[in-house]
Specification:
It is a single chain. With 610 residues, the protein is α/β, with parallel strands linked by helices. It has 25 helices and 20 strands. The strands form 4 sheets. The protein has a 6-stranded parallel beta sheet with strand order 7-6-8-9-5-10. The protein has a 5-stranded parallel beta sheet with strand order 11-20-19-12-18. Helix 23 links the parallel strand 19 and strand 20. The longest helix is centred in the last third of the chain and has 21 residues. The protein starts with a helix and ends with a helix.
């Protein structure tokens, strides 16, 4: 079996890491099923899954019809492995330390089983221990003031979401772009501050804001900083709401050279309320550590779009939590929400369902994309997997959406990039302030599905740079040049630079280069290029890297051949990065392939939520 796995690693069917993990287990077992299961479980982790589902694994679909698979063909099918594996010393039930854990037909690496169990334990305990406002009548009055009545007669889901979060220790507010997640949470924070000050006028709650990336944290800072000044509340309440967001890694306290954080169960975070934006980007490992560091008495409010791409690392935590977001609420919760909001929610009563559903709310109305918005229509059609509607939107003449299907895609793409990046480069030539330059750069971005190839990040960064140089907007030579945009790709806590942060290179009067990065308070700091952690040019970035960011105008470039990376969620995420204008470069068959290919992350978390 080891020889077969070694060959599969050599031809890139599995990773060398997967093969070496199986070799490690060969010291404890000679059973070929154990070695194969170990390699496949490790492989699943590399593909974003937290476990190997024995009942849903087709070996020859997974590994291909390879002529070197004789050793694997002699093994029984995976749906028969549980009986074989349960007696192996390398595989346990979680009660003892073993490399692998077998649980309910799923095979885990020990640490990922622990992550999943820890997340489920904390969420289940929080679901069964809701907050109950001591004065529901007063809470309803505050909600009515913060969320004024709408004229359309529809349910105000922002108000309902605030009521849900006010009554739960852990809550999730999910919604697509422009549904008002940060507006809702800012008003919710005002409600929580007012409630706290009524109980103790001298101690407002300690509120912290966080997001997975620096870009997302900066957006959260800006959004809440703007929204809090529009609140219908006292100055005392307004000033108690922080508008300074930080990254999750900064919040938890990175320890250089170690995987642990400074804050954990023994040294919990000092806060009363934690708001986590862009929660879809949080993987199982980071989520477990965040929940571990959360004080038992704290409130945790997740914001995010459940339909976006899942985290780059293993897990689909927000998606698993939101699996029951359309299941309705319990009778008790509906009664409570109607008392707080005055809305008629009886059509959303469901007699059965896990307790976690009472902690969830989906914002259903987009305030950014109206009925005539091509971006909004395309995003909805893609998200629903509605191919006829996708085709209808693509064929319609819509002001904010352009589909480029011509043979000369590259010429149009490069011209769009030149038009998009010209304003910030000309501003640099005119010696405009760095703050203005950074803001202008954020108005446009080219997004790709892939990293490599002509239509990937590597190819497009080169061709866009060459085109901008021919237009006289940047120098033709040199790694570093006036106007080079760089994307940080590795966290550096010492410099407070994190994966996803973007800076612009300036050539100073002394001829030396400095890279300008925005700070959460709207200022700029400069660093020498030699001090930067791993980074790359960012005239084009992957859709994955763009999560947590929004741009006024976007060029979304799909590859010219079908790729497993190209999924419905990636397409939806790329489309919804655009606020005002989207140009989609794609062949029709590639677009169809993406819509028909939803991501299915294999985890056991949703089944553990009670």
């Amino acid at each position: 079996m080891l020889n077969t796995l070694k060959h599969l690693a050599e031809i890139n069917i599995i990773r060398p890491l997967d093969y070496h993990f199986a070799r490690l287990l060969a010291e404890q077992s000679s059973n070929p099923v154990v070695l194969l299961a170990a390699a496949l479980t490790s492989r699943e982790l590399g593909n974003g899954h937290t476990c190997l589902h024995l009942g849903k694994t087709d070996l020859f679909h997974t590994l291909g019809a390879n002529r070197y698979l004789d050793a694997i063909k002699r093994c029984p099918p995976p749906n028969q492995w549980a009986r074989i594996l349960q007696d192996e010393s390398a595989i346990g039930d979680g009660k003892q330390a073993t490399p692998l854990v077998l649980d309910n037909g799923r095979l885990y690496l020990m640490r990922y089983w622990q992550y999943e169990m820890a997340i489920a334990h904390r969420l289940n305990n929080s679901s069964h221990t809701p907050y109950t406002p001591s004065n529901a009548e007063n809470t309803a009055a505050i909600l009515n003031r913060l969320f004024p009545e709408q004229d359309d007669g529809e349910i105000n889901w922002q108000k309902v979401a605030a009521a849900v979060a006010a009554s739960r220790r852990v809550s999730v507010i999910s919604g697509g772009p422009g549904t008002g997640k940060t507006t809702t949470v800012t008003r919710l924070l005002a409600l929580l501050v007012e409630q706290a000050l009524e109980e103790n006028p001298d101690r407002p709650p300690v509120i912290r804001l966080t997001a997975p990336t620096g870009k997302a944290a900066a957006r959260l800072t800006e959004s809440i900083g703007t929204a809090r000044w529009k609140l219908n509340c006292s100055k005392e309440v307004r000033y108690a709401i922080t508008d300074q967001a930080t990254t999750l890694h900064r919040l938890l306290g990175v320890i250089p050279g170690r995987t642990e954080f400074r804050h954990n169960r023994d040294n919990p975070l000092h806060l009363d309320v934690l708001v986590v934006d862009e929660a879809s980007m949080i993987d199982a490992s980071l989520m477990a550590r965040l929940l571990d560091a959360l004080p038992e008495t704290a409130r945790l409010i997740f914001l995010g779009d459940r339909d976006q791409l899942a985290s780059v690392e293993a897990g689909s935590v927000l998606g698993d939590i939101c699996a029951n977001i359309n299941s309705g609420y319990s009778h008790q919760q509906i009664k409570h929400l109607q008392q707080l909001t005055g809305a008629n929610l009886m059509t959303f009563v469901s007699g059965q369902g896990p307790a976690i559903r009472d902690s969830l709310c989906l914002l259903r109305k987009s305030y950014r994309f109206d009925a005539n918005s091509g971006i909004g229509q395309l995003a909805r059609a893609v998200n629903n997997g509605d191919l006829p509607q996708v085709e209808a939107v693509c064929q319609a003449k819509l002001d904010d959406l352009e589909l480029a299907y011509s043979e000369d895609i590259q010429k149009q793409l490069l011209q769009t990039a030149v038009d998009g990046y010209r304003p910030y480069l000309e501003a640099m030539q005119d010696d405009k302030p760095a703050e203005d330059v950074l803001d202008m750069f954020d108005q446009f971005q080219t997004l790709c599905a892939l990293r490599e190839g002509k239509w990937g990040v590597a190819g497009l960064n080169n061709t866009i740079r060459s085109t901008l140089a021919r237009k006289g907007l940047i120098p033709e030579e040199g790694i570093w040049y006036h106007g080079r945009p760089v994307l940080i790709t590795r966290n550096d806590p010492a410099l407070e630079l994190y994966n996803g942060d973007i800076g612009i290179t300036f050539r100073r009067e002394d001829g030396r280069f400095r890279v300008a990065f925005p700070t959460p308070d709207g200022k700029v700091r400069y660093l020498l290029p030699s001090r930067l952690p791993e980074h790359e040019t960012v005239f084009a970035m992957t859709v994955h890297k763009s999560q947590g960011s929004e741009f006024r105008r976007v060029s979304l470039v799909l590859p010219d051949t079908v790729s497993p990376v190209l999924t419905r969620e990636l397409l939806y995420t790329g489309i919804t990065r655009a606020k005002k204008s989207l140009v989609l470069f794609s062949k029709p068959d590639i677009l169809v392939s993406a819509v028909n290919h939803p991501i299915e992350r294999v985890t056991g978390l949703a089944d553990r939520l009670l």
